[in-house]
Design brief:
Blueprint lengths: L9 H7 L18 H4 L27 E11 L4 E11 L6 E7 L10 H4 L18 E9 L2 E4 L1 E5 L2 E10 L4 E11 L3 E2 L3 E6 L2 E6 L5 E2 L2 E2 L3 E2 L15 E10 L3 E4 L2 E2 L2 H4 L2 H10 L6 E4 L14 E11 L4 E4 L3 E8 L5 E8 L12 H15 L7 E7 L3 E4 L2 E5 L4 H13 L19 H14 L11 H8 L16 H23 L2 H15 L6 H12 L4 H9 L6 E8 L8 E7 L7 E7 L4 E6 L9 E6 L5 E6 L14 E3 L9 H11 L3 H5 L3 E10 L2 E10 L3 E8 L4 E9 L2 E6 L2 E3 L3 H10 L14 E4 L4 E3 L2 E9 L5 E7 L5 E6 L6 E11 L3 E9 L2 E10 L10
Parallel strand pairs: 1-15, 22-23, 23-25
Antiparallel strand pairs: 1-2, 2-8, 3-7, 3-12, 4-5, 4-8, 6-7, 9-10, 10-11, 11-20, 13-14, 15-19, 16-20, 17-19, 18-21, 21-22, 24-25, 26-27, 27-30, 28-29, 28-31, 31-32, 33-34, 33-46, 34-35, 35-36, 36-37, 37-38, 39-41, 40-41, 41-42, 42-43, 43-44, 44-45, 45-46
Helix pairs in contact: 1-10, 6-7, 7-8, 8-10, 11-12
């Protein structure tokens, strides 16, 4: 699914903006680092067999079963119904005789008495039903034997159907099932299918629509976990031949190739489609003018015929509201495919779906060049009610998506054609093997697309406290077990970051890319397990990564690297230095240290993870030529260190005569002076940011001295993510539709965190200030650290640039759960004062777009 699924997945959004205030009242404690625990030699199971090799490849007797489908259905737009027949030819390639077969009937998730509904929280959620249907209405099940149909005995249990055979299906034999079925298309289908009413008609996005074979494999036998919503799918490969009969005014698109275009399209539309197959630029097939004349016939029904080879599933969409455009995809080896998009007029425009086909084309081409050649003849992007969902050769993306949001969701959903459409992992159990892998390749792709048009480098360090929060789940859990607020991290972001760290910090791009491609090649159209992936990467990269797989995927351990001390050989910097590091968390990773000297010399030192095999401290020699001004770990913020406050150490003392009072006064003067700041009675500001391509809007308002309002939202989706109001002693926080309960300590911290010019109060009674005697390092620059204790006992650490005097950083709270904010790019605004126009809060960069001072803000917003 979409990467919110990318941001567009609402529950991942909830996790991405999880307010840190609830974590502020206690400091998380972790066990001490133990190298024996990290580098345990017994991580891998000792057993191997002929089906899966210890080298991470399919074994000499690897097998998997096969399911071929012939599907014929009718779409009734008056009743919003799909009905028809499914002919399934199932081949048993296993060494076992099968006395029964299991099928998925996923439409049953929409029944009022479904197991998923019973397991949904009363507050709802992304996969909770908003309305109910009768589910998959099975009219008959029969076994085809010698061209005769014999009724089969079957039992439906929620989203599973067991077909009991009169005689076991022997190894190497085939059986054909015929199933007659029907269902009502839900308006909201757990964000994976559904229908959207546009001004020109309904858009139907149809998936999980026919009874599908469960996988029988060498690991678990039948894989029969119920469909509850969060866990996606695990399916057999086969060939699909299917038809969709619909009213003549509709355009139908689906997985695979349309094999009867001349029967269903007008000559003009057919010619435009053929033109698109030869064009690198987008060709219009159906626009608002030709919308009523694209498909043949004005009355009655048309049957659209599709074929999709070697696929694990098919999906389709239909609407009379579709605009349609397409272009050629250029694949390695001179092969081509077709990129196409269908969307309503509400989604049209060059800043929105008018660029969809361009995004599809380039995403497919980039992935094909980098990892594995795209295997389907067509790649179709459908705009509709679904925020983001993937199927072989076709994806559903939110019709409101535009700009970077549309690129990211399109790029993500089509990335799924590699994971899990080509590499057929078990999504029902291991969401990270498709979502995480896909999120990783999305980032690699986005760096390249259109010279990085939508790429923004992530500050991994700033986001670490959320990813490694006290209530985190380990990656290696089935998605239905992972708490909804953390699923985005466990399934998407954390496994993707793990691969990024392997590629950038541990193996290097060349070794990683070779090993990752080797894994894809070995398991294309097969069913790998996590152990197959681990073994494949170890062997092809030539590295025992068991320590990494264990700490990253199996545990919730945290990383906390620190600079402990700087010493000079014989007390002379010119003779060299000894720099001591400490690993304070349970996780071990390589170290990158930036060493800066007084004479301007700067070097980057890279140390392998093996330095932590001896214990929690490590001292390395450095050939200094002058005094060291600073040692900074992870200067580019590429590692998820939960306590970056100890990542840098300066050896430069604060000059005599400088006090906390002088630092504060210098700052106040730098931004305009106390008198001008006191003249500010109200201030409002709007700023924009991005998370995984979704544009965020942050609006803040102040009425001095004690009123503050902030709202974070996604304008494209009319979605409010966070709403905060401070009014005197009252503090209210709401995330999405949920009011958060804050204790007294959290409310006090929130009040302190969101003051406009708190330095104006520091000379008042009850405030205590302390200047650290040594300069600190913030983003490679030296800064003064002033620790302030408020009359309420709240401590905040503020960092002021040693050269400009400007405030560049603030930390409130304990390490690992602190509210950290970074400021830069100060600019003058009205009233003769300066404000920072770049702010990083909760790890998200925001750029200020508009500032208004003394505009007469209403008190109403602060109630």
């Amino acid at each position: 699914m979409n990467k919110y699924k990318i941001v567009l997945s609402l529950l991942l959004l909830f996790g991405a903006f999880h307010t840190e205030a609830q974590q502020q009242t206690s400091q998380s404690t972790t066990a001490a680092y133990d190298q024996h625990e990290v580098f345990n030699p017994l991580f891998y199971p000792a057993t191997t067999d002929v089906y899966r090799s210890s080298g991470g490849q399919p074994g000499p007797k690897y097998w998997q079963n096969r399911a071929d489908y012939k599907l014929n259905v009718v779409l009734d737009t008056a009743q919003h119904r799909v009905s028809g027949t499914s002919l399934i030819t199932y081949t048993n390639n296993s060494p076992d005789a099968l006395p029964f077969l299991w099928l998925q009937v996923d439409q049953n998730i929409y029944k009022e008495d479904s197991r998923a509904e019973a397991a949904s929280e009363v507050t709802g959620g992304r996969w909770a039903n908003k309305s109910f249907t009768q589910g998959e209405e099975i009219k008959s099940v029969s076994v085809m034997h010698k061209r005769k149909s014999e009724s089969a005995t079957y039992l439906i249990t929620d989203t599973r159907m067991q077909v009991k055979l009169k005689e076991p299906l022997e190894p190497g034999k085939k059986i054909t099932l015929k199933v007659e079925f029907a269902f009502t298309v839900p308006e909201y289908g757990t964000d994976r299918m559904g229908r959207l009413n546009t001004k020109n008609g309904w858009i139907y996005e149809i998936a999980q629509w026919y009874p599908r074979m469960e996988v029988y494999d060498d690991v678990s036998g039948w894989n029969t976990l119920p469909y509850l919503g969060a866990g996606e799918f695990y399916l057999e490969y086969g060939d699909f031949d299917y038809t969709v009969t619909a009213p003549a005014g509709l355009v139908v698109v689906g997985s695979g190739e349309l094999v009867n275009p001349k029967e269903v399209l007008t000559p003009a539309a057919f010619n435009q489609l053929e033109k698109a197959r030869q064009s690198d630029k987008t060709v219009i097939i159906r626009d608002a003018v030709s919308a009523n004349t694209t498909a043949n016939g004005k009355n009655g029904l048309l049957t659209w015929h599709f074929k999709c080879q070697n696929s694990r599933d098919v999906a389709w969409a239909a609407s009379k509201a579709f605009l349609w455009d397409a272009a050629r995809i250029n694949l390695p080896g001179g092969k081509t495919a077709l990129a196409q998009s269908v969307y309503p007029v509400e989604s049209a425009g060059d800043s929105a779906w008018g660029r969809s086909t361009e995004y599809v084309k380039h995403a497919i081409e980039l992935y094909s060049d980098k990892w594995y050649v795209y295997t389907y003849p067509v790649a179709t992007n459908v705009a509709g009610i679904v925020g983001g969902m993937e199927y072989p050769g076709i994806v559903f993306c939110g019709y409101k998506s535009r700009g970077s949001s549309l690129w990211n969701v399109t790029n993500h959903e089509f990335g799924h054609n590699w994971f899990p459409m080509i590499v057929g992992s078990n999504e029902r159990k291991y969401a990270w093997m498709d979502e995480g892998f896909n999120t990783f390749i999305n980032d690699v792709d986005t760096k390249v697309f259109n010279n990085g048009e939508y790429y923004k480098k992530e500050d991994v360090q700033m986001g670490a406290p959320r990813m490694f929060s006290p209530d985190a789940d380990a990656i290696m859990n089935i998605p239905d077990v992972i708490q909804p607020s953390y699923l985005g991290y466990a399934a998407y972001n954390k496994p993707a970051l793990g691969l990024q760290i392997l590629r950038e910090q541990i193996l290097g791009e060349a070794r990683f890319d070779y090993a990752f491609r080797n894994y894809i090649d070995n398991w294309a159209f097969k069913h790998p397990t996590p152990w197959d992936f681990f073994h494949a990467m170890d062997n092809a990269a030539g590295e025992d990564l068991s320590w990494f797989w264990n700490e990253w995927f199996m545990t919730t351990w945290k990383l906390d690297q620190a600079v402990q001390s700087i010493q000079y050989v014989a007390n002379d910097p010119a003779k060299g230095s000894l720099i001591t590091l400490e690993n304070k968390g349970r996780m071990a990773l390589p170290v990158t240290a930036l060493v800066q000297e007084e004479n301007g010399k700067a070097d980057t030192v890279r140390l392998p993870v093996e330095i932590w095999q001896k214990g929690s401290t490590w001292t390395f020699p450095y050939k200094s030529t002058s005094k060291i001004t600073a040692v900074t770990l992870d200067p580019d913020h590429r590692l998820p260190d939960i306590n970056p406050e100890n990542n840098a150490l300066s050896a430069i003392p604060v000059k005599k005569g400088i006090t906390a009072q002088t630092v504060i006064q210098t700052y106040l003067n730098a931004i305009g002076g106390a008198d001008k700041l006191k003249a500010v009675h109200d201030l409002s500001m709007s700023a924009t940011g991005q998370v995984q391509g979704a544009e965020l809007l942050m609006q803040t308002k102040y009425i001095l001295p004690d009123k503050f309002y902030a709202e974070m939202s996604i304008p494209d989706y009319n979605m409010s993510l966070m709403h905060l109001v401070v009014n005197g002693d009252s503090v209210k926080v709401q995330e999405r539709n949920n009011r958060m309960a804050l204790d007294g300590a959290a409310r006090k911290q929130m009040k302190v965190a969101y003051q406009l010019f708190p330095e104006l109060d520091y000379t008042k009674k009850g405030y205590q200030m302390q200047l650290d005697p040594v300069l600190q390092v913030v983003k490679g620059q030296l800064a003064f650290l002033v620790t302030v204790t408020t009359p309420e006992g709240i401590k905040l650490q503020s960092y002021y640039d040693a050269e400009t005097g400007l405030k560049v950083k603030q930390v409130i709270g304990e390490p690992g759960s602190a509210i950290t904010t970074l400021w830069s790019d100060y600019k003058p605004v009205e009233g003769g004062i300066k404000l920072p126009f770049t702010e990083i809060t909760s790890g998200i960069p925001f750029e200020v777009q508009d500032v208004k001072i003394n505009s007469g803000l209403s008190q109403a917003a602060f109630k």
